[in-house]
Amino acid sequence: MPAKYFICSDGRSILIKDCLTSCQMKQRCMFLPTLRAVAKSLDRGLSEPTVTELIAGTREIYLKKTVDYAVNPQDVLYALHGSALHTINENHTEGNMLTEIRLKDDITSGKFDLYGEILDQDTGVLGDIKVTSSYKIMKALGKYKVNVPTSEVYKTGLKKGEPKYKKEWRDDGVKGIIDWAIQLNYYRILLEQQGLAVNKIVIQAMCRDNSLRIANERGIDQAIYLISVNRISNRWIIRYMQHKATALQQALHSGNMPSICTAKERWHNRKCLDYCQVSEHCSYGKKLKNNAIKLLKVVS
Ligand code: SF4
Ligand code: SF4
Q1: Distance from the CA of 31 to the center of ligand 1, in angstroms?
Q2: Which of 10, 42, 143, 166 has the fewest C-beta atoms under 10 angstroms from its C-beta?
Q3: Is the CB of 278 under 6 A from ligand 2?
Q4: Residue 29 C-alpha to ligand 1 middle, in angstroms?
């Protein structure tokens, strides 16, 4: 079930369909066509869970499919950035390439962005377009900073005589792209099931904050990065997705709330606190938020 309500800037909720008919405030919080596009991006009209849904925590998907939840249109605009970029690419796919086709198997379905001769002479490149933060790109590239000694020493102060260090970037860290890798490897499997060979998987990640100082501090100074994704064994991927699909089906069938999302799925609580659209319906998310509010009161 997609989101049913919008949250207005004054905190009140409104049925999305009522908001699109008439705003309950003096003035709309954004242009009507933008709101319509946001509403459309929230409802893809798919009842069966998709690859991207199954990658999320089972409790989160279960709640999204069973409760009427509310979203602030300001918080979900990021989905429009992605679709806008997809549309731009989709209109320029003349030649030896396929785009935006939903493929399905017994477990789930997935829509790849681009496939074909999109990068070099290789006709078997699976490409995925992401619009994301400099933080996520820094993690995906495996970038990290190290202290490198300089030839200088401190001449005064508490550290007098100690060597001075400077920070330098390294690009050989662990690539934090497991979710993207699972998603794209599943698309690869779906393409291969159609007899289409996938020789390379590449993400084109566009940084949405690349002109800001924070991006620079994270070592991100380009608007677009190409990130290669390794093959993961079909056996592992299929078992993982089958497990997630079965857990969801069983929960939906029995009506029993699944266990809380794993630490990885809930981004070590960051998602529960700030990004999960159904946290108001999850006991764990509510508890975390209440604790955070209590802590803020103590501090202030
Ligand atoms: S346009 Fe914005 S402020 Fe107006 S009803 Fe819709 S969500 Fe609320
Ligand atoms: S609040 Fe956290 S644990 Fe609950 S559904 Fe959302 S991500 Fe999962």
Answers
A1: 10
A2: 10
A3: yes
A4: 5
**Residue 22 Cα: closest atom of ligand 1:** 5
User: pLDDT tens digits for the chain (300 residues)?
Assistant: 789 999 999 999 999 999 999 999 999 999 999 999 999 988 877 778 899 999 999 999 999 999 999 999 998 888 888 888 888 888 888 888 999 899 999 999 999 999 999 999 999 999 999 999 999 999 999 999 999 999 899 999 999 999 999 988 898 999 999 999 999 999 999 999 999 999 999 999 999 988 888 998 899 999 999 999 999 999 999 999 999 999 999 999 999 999 999 999 999 999 999 999 999 999 999 999 999 888 887 777
For residue 24, give the ligand 1 atom closest to its CA: 5
Residue nearest to atom 1 of ligand 1 (CA): 28
Query: Would you list the DSSP string of 110-127?
Result: EEEEEEESSSSS-S-EEE
